[in-house]
TrEMBL record:
CDD domains: BI-1-like_bacterial. InterPro entries: Bax_inhibitor_1-related. This is Bax inhibitor-1/YccA family protein. It comes from Pendulispora brunnea. Its main location: membrane. Belongs to the BI1 family. The keyword Transit peptide does not apply. The keyword Transmembrane helix applies. The chain crosses the membrane at residues 26-47, 67-87, 99-118, 138-155, 162-182, 188-207, 219-243. It is found in: Membrane. It is a multi-pass membrane protein. Keywords: Membrane, Transmembrane, Transmembrane helix.
Amino acid sequence: MNQYSRSYGAAQVRSAESVASYLRRVYLLFTGGVFFAIAGALAALYLGEPAVIRAGRGVTLEVPPLVAFGMQHWLMMIVIYLGAFFAASALRWRPGINVAALFGYTTITGVFLAPTLFFAQLMASQGATLDASPVRDAFLLTGLAFTGLSGYVLVTRKNFSFMGAALNMGLWVIIGASFLGIFLHSAVFHLAIASVGVLLFSGYILYDTSRLLHDRSQNDAVGAALGLFLNVVNLFLFLLRILSSSRER
């Protein structure tokens, strides 16, 4: 019996060490992905000679070349973005190339989001947004929220797996409401969607972090990092939508 107890205890230690190693790998990949996304966005926003584009009603704007390309070829950018995402998902089990695919996708994500960031800050510079610096503040709030929510799960070791069904249902509600918002030009409606989106992806951070901690069958570090990255990007975008909403005059 004593020998069995010692063997069981050793197995538990090995299991705990395995989980800790897995968590370190996931968070290192996730952090790397975030840095590559930031690098992609900065490259799109600051590299190259500005291009002049027409913004309507005789108004012209000087925008970075990659931002101009994204605006003028938005359909191509969507195809490239989705292609990079599906490639990263499909290759996540292939050692070596999976990490390159992950970082390639996150870099493309930064480039893909650059036009949104550019115009959010442009509107803020004209005093037309709720927050004076929506991009910076959305980024900081996202970082604080992710750190706080993930840290809470890792410290308390609570299991949030029960949230899965509700979160998936909420995701479909958000998708449907966003599609409806295309036809309903209501600032209040869009603000409500963004507020629910913030709560939804905060819940996904709790849920996915809990799965990393409690689901011992998981061995897909790249896929887990990709999931966390998507949660953070969506949380950031919904916060940005709230902070860059029109200021009432």
